[in-house]
Design brief:
single chain; 429 residues; alpha/beta; 13 helices
Amino acid sequence: MLQLVDVGKKSIADYTSLASRGVMEEIRKLAEPLAGKRVLHLSATAFGGGVAEINYALVPLMKDVGLDVEWRIIKGDDEFFGVTKAIHNALQGDLHGLTTAQEDIFRRYNAMNAAEFEDDYDFVIVHDPQPAAMIDHFPETPASWIWRCHIDLSAPNHAVLDFLAASLERYDASIFHMPEYVPQHVALRQAFIWPPAIDPLTPKNMALSAEDASYVVDQFGIHLERPLLTQISRFDPWKDPLGVIDAYKLVKQTHPDVQLALVGSMAHDDPEGWDYYNRTVAHAAGDPDIFILSNLNNIGSVEVNAFQVHSFAVIQKSIREGFGLTVTEALWKARPTVGGRAGGIVAQIRDGETGWLVDSSVQCADACREILDGPAAAAARGRRGKEDVRQRLLMPRLLRDWLALFNRLDGNDLGETGLVTVATAASAR
């Protein structure tokens, strides 16, 4: 059997004061006909990245409303995860394709994981490309299989996407963050659009006082009386930490007291992360006001929360971005937030109203200077950003969307919750 993840317990009732009464009532009605349905989440890792963070909240909430839910992790080693990282990069636009050997590795590990999978569920949710080909080994499955894509497919490497297409076309439904991510030449059966969400009750997102945040970041050498800029993300070329350092250096010319924290996590399914971590350290060139930290420095959820709360500005200068939950987290904390004009970030930040969207290190530096020079106006944008997250991007809304989809796939569409769909190559035929 594939490794089972222990997610603990959560109660949807605890979110009553945060979600609208309408959403909570929808959840109750949508859950009733699904009582006892067996649901499986399949993903590549139980820590590091947005998929894991979402599942630690979503899975126990699905259980709490009456479903029988499991979350299992596929098996793989550096050989496999090196290939899946190449696939991830290619789907986000990297021009490098896959060799025949890499394609064989991907198929072999998916077959190996399929051999340890018990096809005894009502709904199987496959997260991202790593386990996407497991479905090929269950042509007579009784389950509804759903592919949940968490990455930016707006400009994919078509050779790599074509390699995956035969598997993706088997899924009963596919879910994307944005309409632009739906690949139009792949004959997907159904495509649904909804954004991910954050859990406002986790240690990373719970209310944290400025005093407590200061106490935490002080432990890492941050000078409390000097302004701090922070980016929270993996060490990944698409997150552009080198460009963030370049922006910081520009800000430093006019605001010499400024500090920069680059805070990330090292996930076991991202072997490229160490290489880019080392490149980031080299690019910092020993600057004592740049703090490069990760889970290996005892950075956890509370520490991330503290860095976001304490920062004058939170940056997410991504070049490609599936959605960018770190942006959602910063907005939820009412922090002035600067995001790259990429992927799902543009669906979160209203430029000039709830934050800043930028296309270069120079623009990023200009936005940070504006925040440093006009803290009152920046704080007003931050407050508007928090309310936007409250309305659209909290966990109860995500649970509602999943329940609505399960009902539709089960032939029990209650018609009370609208699901955004996009025409696909298959539906156009």
